[in-house]
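S1.2 Input.
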Amino acid sequence: MTTPKLSDALARADLVHDRATLAAAIARIGGEIDRELVGKPAVFVTVMQGALMFAGQLATSIAAPLTFDYVHATRYRGVTSGGELHWIKRPSIALAGATVLLVDDILDEGHTLNAIRDFCREQGAARVLLAVLCEKRHGRTVPNLRADFVGVQVPDRYVFGYGMDYYEQGRNLPAIYVVDA
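S1.3 Output.
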């Protein structure tokens, strides 16, 4: 299969959130997290690879003491629809008794995020808070899964840019775009 070109996707995509909108949303989330943590420490766990850009900027807007780790689990593996969960790396910091701030790029159906949250709980996390840059508007989310902190809403279309990929391309775009898959 030939990888579709990012330039072709951008030519038919709609811009839904620009850089300034995302920066304001990230600053807002940082403040919300600080109010929730009230100065208490948390383990900041970035879900790779998509959340990398969001997590780096979010971390600098949080004043509470943070310890950093990451997890890499995916259902997509370079395609646009999910399959079975594949673990690449689990957090190496002990989570027992900790407040975990799980940071991801998007809450779509939530299967991957739900599995990672469950893993954190199984490791003994006292509390797991979910922060996502964007949340897709639809009714297909895993039951009982909701983000505690949401930056922006996105339509129920294929989302890319600002950490999210289009066939492993476009993560470095400074805005969020949607396209029909």
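S1.4 Remarks. The chain has one domain: 20-74+83-154.
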